Inverse folding.
């Protein structure tokens, strides 16, 4: 048998007769259970927000009349314009900075690149409200550097832009870093052979090869900025934007139809970004041909010195925001008594949720990491490893794949609004879940479903088909193959997704801000409540606690997984099926 025919034959052998435990009925049960979960906690809430947008305050259907009355109200379209302007300005700042940072890490020889990478990703550990709090302490009316703004206020347009730049930078960095890591050394060798200088090689080789990553990063930064209300809530002042208006309409004014209408508008940039990203990825995949020859950067004094300076400046800016929040949480009474104190950490004597909020967040994040990783992995395994039989099952599989990709196009604020309308409906038997920890966990898992699902799909596709073919030929049960072969081989992806789910659950605000009760208040929501109550130093302290908790979990997960990864991933360097051989 030819080598190129071997994987196809292996897959056919692996998909032959299923053992009894995974027969037709069991497989159908798993598929239906996953479908019910995604329909109940994703599709129906989104349907209800759509219905609410075309209802009046009494719940009567009015078609698009109510929607257009809200959209056409005086001041609404200027608010849309302000949101777009903030998104475009943030994009113009973040994407070039993140591109230069990623280029320095991937294409230069700089000492301490690992440390700089960790600093660049540090904002992922903080809730989106933290940069707003730090900016107040830095450039506010009593800020440490208030003279730098020349008498102007940080509240408003530039405060939102700077806060969103901090919040979105690591997301752009991850995409651009991945795009710049995929380089073909043969193209650079050919360019040098033709006499192209460094700048011309960048324009003709590096930039075209990474343009899809640039477009994806730009779309993501714009969408995250437009749909985030954390930074505008803290430093927006009178500069109102769409996401903040949706939050005020629901929480402050109880105008649910208006909140639903704004939620539908917030879906537009997210859906367009999702569709454009899929189109760009498809084109990038279609243009990729053959295997890449690894590019290894060579030392270049001038280039490395310049980009080393870029890394240092950006990292210092990130550390200034993070460090200011940490320092402010330890100040006794800003700005009159700068002595250190733990007074701000006495959460139980302040409004917002107290230490209960932090404990709730830890519990919710652990449940999200464990339950979410297991659930999403099982869903990806069903779709990739259990072949559909018959047209009905193929249709279910197609629907499941579509639902698995849908959360990426739904902002957390919109999903939270959908949960309000769906789970508070008087005829919904699941209404008892509202305000419970179970609903918070499920909402967070669904909100983060797509990224984890795509990670698992990639990991499952990378498993050599010969391994599963060998298990099938030995009549091994599917359960034994799953636990003895598939899970160990996918352990790196499982650990990575668990860390991602934990950190995201600790820092999320928008998806859960409408769903908690006094008993299930979360740390990220407590930051919001403390800021509302005027306890800004306590809010900074809670942000610091969230960051430390996320960092400790990531460190422990890394240390605990090293031995397991060495044992389960040894096949990648010694197996004849390894792509490196």
């Amino acid at each position: 048998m030819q080598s190129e025919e071997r994987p196809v034959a292996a897959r056919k052998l692996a998909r032959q007769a299923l053992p009894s435990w995974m027969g037709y009925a069991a497989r159908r049960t798993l598929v239906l259970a996953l479908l019910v979960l995604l329909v109940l906690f994703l599709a129906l809430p989104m349907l209800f927000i759509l219905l609410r947008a075309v209802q009046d305050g009494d719940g009567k259907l009015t078609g698009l009349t109510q929607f257009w009355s809200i959209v056409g109200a005086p001041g609404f379209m200027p608010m849309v314009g302000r949101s777009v302007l903030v998104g475009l300005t943030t994009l113009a700042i973040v994407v070039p900075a993140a591109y230069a940072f990623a280029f320095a890490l991937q294409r230069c020889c700089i000492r301490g690149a690992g440390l700089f990478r960790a600093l660049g990703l540090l904002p992922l550990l903080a809730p989106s409200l933290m940069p707003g709090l730090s900016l107040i302490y830095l450039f506010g009316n009593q800020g440490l550097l208030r003279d730098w703004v020349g008498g102007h206020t940080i509240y408003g347009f530039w405060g939102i832009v700077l806060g969103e730049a901090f919040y979105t930078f690591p997301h752009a960095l991850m995409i651009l870093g991945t795009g710049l890591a995929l380089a073909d050394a043969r193209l650079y060798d050919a360019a040098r052979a033709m006499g192209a200088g460094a700048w011309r090689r960048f324009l003709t080789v590096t930039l075209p090869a990474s343009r899809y990553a640039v477009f994806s990063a730009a779309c993501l930064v714009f969408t995250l900025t437009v749909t985030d209300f954390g930074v505008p809530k803290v430093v927006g002042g009178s500069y109102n934007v769409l996401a903040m208006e949706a939050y005020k309409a629901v929480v402050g004014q109880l105008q649910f139809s208006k909140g639903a209408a704004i939620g539908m508008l917030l879906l537009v940039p997210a859906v367009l970004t999702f569709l454009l990203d899929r189109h760009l990825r498809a084109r990038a995949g279609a243009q990729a041909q053959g295997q890449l020859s690894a590019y290894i950067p060579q030392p270049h004094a001038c280039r490395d010195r310049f980009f080393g300076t870029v890394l240092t400046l950006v990292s210092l800016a990130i550390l200034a925001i993070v460090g200011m929040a940490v320092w402010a949480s330890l100040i006794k009474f800003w700005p009159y008594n700068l002595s250190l104190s733990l007074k701000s950490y006495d959460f139980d004597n302040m409004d917002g949720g107290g230490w209960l909020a932090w404990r709730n967040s830890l519990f919710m994040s652990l449940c999200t990491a464990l339950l979410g990783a297991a659930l999403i992995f099982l869903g990806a395994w069903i779709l990739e490893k259990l072949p559909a039989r018959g047209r009905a099952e193929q249709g279910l599989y197609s629907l499941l794949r579509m639902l698995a990709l849908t959360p990426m196009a739904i902002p957390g604020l919109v999903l939270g609004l959908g949960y309000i309308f769906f789970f508070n409906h008087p005829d919904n038997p699941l209404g008892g879940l509202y305000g419970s920890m179970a609903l918070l966990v499920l909402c967070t898992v669904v909100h983060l479903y797509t990224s984890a699902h795509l990670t698992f799909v990639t990991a499952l596709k990378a498993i050599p088909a010969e391994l599963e073919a060998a298990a099938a030929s030995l009549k091994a049960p599917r359960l034994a193959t799953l636990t003895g072969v598939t899970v160990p081989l996918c352990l790196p992806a499982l650990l990575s997704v668990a860390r991602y789910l934990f950190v995201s659950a600790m820092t999320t605000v928008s998806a859960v801000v409408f769903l908690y009760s006094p008993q299930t208040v979360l740390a990220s929501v407590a930051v919001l409540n403390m800021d509302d109550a005027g306890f800004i130093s306590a809010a900074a302290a809670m942000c610091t606690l969230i960051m430390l908790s996320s960092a400790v979990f990531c460190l422990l997960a890394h240390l605990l997984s090293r031995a397991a990864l060495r044992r389960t991933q040894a096949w990648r360097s010694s197996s004849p099926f390894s792509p490196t051989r």
Summary: The first strand starts at residue 331 and ends at 333. The mean pLDDT is 82.
